[in-house]
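Figure 6 in text form: structure in, sequence out.
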């Protein structure tokens, strides 16, 4: 099963050849990523959710 990007309006997934990464454990960094995801400040990813290379800061 492919992994999908959790960013708003992004449907990139591992089957398309995108690298999917987990959210960082560091809270400051994680908040930065959440801001970039565009789902609002109160949204937070579950432990299994990932971001594609396009939306992440890697
Ligand atoms: Zn994405």
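Output sequence:
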């Amino acid at each position: 099963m492919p992994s999908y990007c959790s960013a708003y309006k992004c449907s990139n997934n591992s089957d398309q050849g995108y690298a999917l990464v987990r959210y960082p454990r560091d809270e400051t960094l994680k908040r930065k990523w959440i801001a970039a995801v565009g789902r609002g400040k109160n949204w937070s990813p579950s432990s299994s959710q990932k971001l594609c290379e396009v939306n992440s800061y890697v």
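Caption detail: Residues 1-57 form one domain.
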